[in-house]
Amino acid sequence: MRTQIETERLGLLLGRELCAQDQRRLTRLLKLAHLKQNPCVEDIDYRGSEMESQ
User: Fold this and answer.
1) Residues in contact with 39: Cβ distance below 8 Å, sequence separation at least 6, in sequence order
2) Can you list the alpha helix ranges (DSSP code H) found in 34-54?
3) What pTM did the predictor assign?
4) Is the pLDDT reported for residue 36 higher than 90?
């Protein structure tokens, strides 16, 4: 039982670290992009362009 709890805790810690690494990477890339406006997740258009659908 104890090893299962330790394994789960390790998995949570690893997941949190991976998430933190991704966040740091995205923050770094956004700074390097020198965007004129601050990016906002809600502004992303995931539908694709009209050229792709033709």
Assistant:
1) 30
2) 50-53
3) 0.58
4) no
